[in-house]
Design brief:
409 residues; alpha+beta; Butyryl-Coa Dehydrogenase, subunit A, domain 1; Butyryl-CoA Dehydrogenase, subunit A, domain 2; Butyryl-CoA Dehydrogenase, subunit A, domain 3; 7-stranded mixed sheet; two-stranded antiparallel sheet; 11 helices; 9 strands
Length: 409
């Protein structure tokens, strides 16, 4: 019998995971349970506070112990009180965090994928033992100072200097767009070292990482005000005015600009997953609204143009899921390259931003109200589209790989 417009297809189902290609069949029961637990916490503990925090431009710091209990801080690190999750489990968790808000996922990324990863990869055993267990429990917070006011896409041009002295180093310079800078107990700060024999202090090879603790004389942090995006993220400027740190503040394993870029690879991997969570939230909201909203005597979801938009959104989310899932497999095998990570970050963020824009369009006038999530996700994703490598920079990374020719300069 030919189906009518009121007859559902026998196998019709859109799960909250939007798993059109049945990737869940490849996920363990333990990973599914972890995802369920994170999703439940986000929906019951975090989401009810999001509008208050968004309007105030604050992060719900009182929830930090609960976030730590989820195991997400430094979750990809083995030992030191960290969860030691697989790349897939880590990605699934970050998608659920960003389903709530990009600011939540960003907070976790800064703490874990950037600050904790830098200490884990390049720190001494003493530094690891001192900081990582406390950071995993959110009893200590960290930030990652790489970007500068005049050097965003070109971190190799950094002007922050660390002059070697008889009793340590003296840091001078400034960092910009630093997540959690005013909250951090320790800042991972990247600077070019001046005073090491045989090393050109102007070269990217001179870049080293330093642990600068809160309260160190000459170190200050201030919040950047007036953001329309990433409102619950505490974004800061760091300044170093002849800031003196001891010899043991140096992360001994850091060797040039490639060191902070290794940390960015970990963070970009998480972003590729997180963006999927934001996109899912927008699609689900748009679809549910279109099914409820009656225009011209029938649901918006019954119109061809609306169905076309929903179908395209679902297709692009599925494409992003497939890319992220395969990237997780490569990362688990130790085979993921920075080009693959760059491609996934760029593709999935651009996808999520477009999905958010279309979802807001389907919602119509009410889409600008804070009772709906799509406009907030759209604003947040404008930041993710720019940070940790702009869309253009990631295209050029891929372009250089394809041609063998650098187009950065």
């Amino acid at each position: 019998m030919k189906p009518t417009n009121t007859t559902p297809f026998p196998d019709y189902k859109m799960s909250e995971d939007l798993d059109l290609y049945r990737l869940d069949d490849l996920i363990s029961a333990e990973d599914k349970e972890l995802r369920r637990r994170v999703r439940h916490w986000v929906q019951t503990r975090f989401v009810p506070q999001i509008n208050r925090c968004w309007n105030a431009g604050t992060f719900p710091l009182e929830l930090l112990p609960e976030i730590a209990e989820l195991g997400v801080f430094g979750a990809n690190i083995q030992g030191y009180g960290c969860a030691g999750w697989s790349p897939l489990r880590y990605g699934l968790a970050l998608a659920e965090l960003e389903r709530g808000d990009t600011g939540l996922r960003t907070f976790v990324s800064v703490q874990g994928a950037l600050a904790m990863t830098a200490i884990h990869l390049f720190g001494s055993e003493e530094q690891k033992q001192r900081w990582l267990p406390e950071m995993a429990r959110a009893r200590k917070l960290g930030c990652f100072g790489l970007t500068e006011p005049l050097h965003g896409s070109n971190p190799g041009g950094m002007e922050t200097r660390a002059v070697k002295t008889s009793d340590g180093y003296e840091l001078t310079g400034a960092k910009m767009w630093i997540g959690g800078g005013t909250l951090a107990d320790v800042a991972v700060v990247w600077a070019k070292v001046d005073g090491e024999p045989g090393l050109d202090p102007n070269s990217p090879a001179a870049v080293r990482g330093f642990l600068v603790e809160r309260g160190t004389p000459g170190f200050s942090a201030s919040v950047i005000e007036g953001k329309y995006s990433l409102r619950i993220g505490i974004t800061c400027r760091l300044e170093f005015n002849h800031c003196k740190v001891p010899h043991n503040a140096l992360l001994p394993g850091t060797k040039g600009l490639k060191s902070p870029l290794q940390c960015l690879n970990h963070a970009r991997y998480g972003i590729a997953w997180g963006a999927i969570g934001a996109a899912k939230a927008c699609l689900e909201e748009a679809r549910d609204y279109a099914l409820r909203r009656i225009q011209f005597g029938k649901p918006l979801a019954s119109f061809q143009m609306v169905q076309s938009k929903l179908a395209r959104m679902a297709t692009e989310i599925t494409n992003a899921q497939l890319m992220a899932f395969r990237l997780a497999q490569l990362k688990e095998a130790g085979q993921a390259t920075f080009v693959q990570i760059s491609m996934a970050k760029r593709n999935n963020v651009a996808m999520a931003l477009q999905v958010a824009r279309i979802a807001r369009e389907i919602l119509g006038g009410v889409g600008i109200l804070d009772e709906h999530v799509s406009f907030r996700h759209m604003c947040n994703l404008e930041s993710v589209y720019t940070y940790e490598g702009t869309d253009d920079m990631h295209l050029l990374i891929l372009g250089e790989y394809l041609t063998g020719l650098s187009a950065f300069v």
